[in-house]
Write a structure and sequence with these properties.
The chain is α+β, with helices and mostly antiparallel strands. The protein is built from two helices and five strands. The chain has one domain. The chain is elongated and about 45 Å long.
Length: about 80
Amino acid sequence: MAIVLSHLQSVSMACLNFGTGILCYNPVYRLRLENSRHVWMEWHSYFGPSFYRDRFLMREIEDWYDDPFICKALDWFIRRGKIA
């Protein structure tokens, strides 16, 4: 499922009803940092961002706020209107 989610870059939070439950997912963006790294960001309009080291959203960056490159990319993302 994570492979599919990484391609939903301009879609707001979507939910799928599959009969016995509802599965909701957030848009995922790939951001290039100034030091030539890439991070993947899952954006939630209420909780804010979650950053990951891989496109499968398995290796979360828990202390992303300590990385000035990630913070600068997040500021850029928000100033653009939350569009990567």
